[in-house]
Amino acid sequence: MTILTDIEGTTSSISFVKDVLFPYARRELPRFVHLRGGEPEVRRWLDEVATDLGGACQDDVIVEALQGWIDQDRKHTALKALQGLLWAEGYRNGDYTAHVYPDAAAALRGWHRAGHRLAVYSSGSVAAQKLFFAHSDAGDLTPLFDAYFDTEIGGKREGTSYARIALALKRPPDELLFLSDVVAELDAAREAGLRTVLVDRLEDYPQPRAGEATHGHTRIERFDQLELA
User: Fold this and answer.
1) How far apart are CA 91 and CA 163, in angstroms?
2) Three-state secondary structure readout of the chain
3) Contact 9, 204 (CB under 8 A)
């Protein structure tokens, strides 16, 4: 069995991203762009934002647009890439560690020991995902994962994205199990033939989703409730 997991609201609290990572990126963006805007890796993404804004833009205009996208939680690949670069600084500086639920860390380690293949699919960039799990509350979890996917492979609410992931992992879709807190993502994964589980953590969703709200997906509140065949 290959287990494909989301991050925010699934392995980790929604509040960490919302209350720690997003404000850090928003606050540090002007300094970051001023100091590193000439680096090719950074310039590439800034230019992509400028193109989306309609053409050549001053960096302060780009920064203002990016800050607005952060406020909107917009799933834009350039924004996610730049946030990942910013968060790398925060992790390296020890400004924070990434929140991972203890039951998630224990289950991921146990599944890995049992021979299950693990992969990540999140709207955050692959670089940000690796940083997240490398600097988690539970230590460096990156050795547990074989692959990481972000929105460059496609949107998380599009069935074709999950079909591409199955191809990339060289596994039949029905041998992949996708864990997420977002029902629409699970619907898309099921459309592509994946097995699905709704992670409905009470810390993130005080009003449990049950009955028709699950859209027929198996529901768990903690990773240790999941029984793998």
Assistant:
1) 33
2) CEEEECCECCCECHHHHHHHHHHHHHHHHHHHHHHHCCCHHHHHHHHHHHHHCCCCCCHHHHHHHHHHHHHHCCCCHHHHHHHHHHHHHHHHCCCCCECCCHHHHHHHHHHHHCCCEEEEECCCCHHHHHHHHHCECCECCHHHCCEEECHHHCCCCCHHHHHHHHHHHCCCHHHEEEEECCHHHHHHHHHCCCEEEEECCCCCCCCCCCHHHHCCCEEECCHHHCCCC
3) yes
> Which residue type, as a one-letter code, is found at position 19?
D
Which residue is it, tokens 């924070």? 96
With beta carbons less than 8 A apart as the criterion, state whether 76 and 69 touch: yes
Reading the chain (229 residues) residue by residue, the pLDDT tens digits are 999 999 999 999 999 988 998 899 999 999 999 999 999 999 999 999 999 998 878 999 999 999 999 999 888 889 988 998 898 889 988 889 999 999 999 999 999 999 999 999 998 889 889 989 999 999 999 999 999 999 999 999 999 999 999 999 999 999 999 999 999 999 999 999 999 999 999 999 999 999 999 999 999 999 999 988 6
CA dist., res. 7 & res. 32, Å (int): 25
**Tokens representing 139?**
């230590």
Q: Are 179 and 197 in contact (CB under 8 A)?
A: yes
81, two tokens: 């890439």
Whole-structure pTM value: 0.83
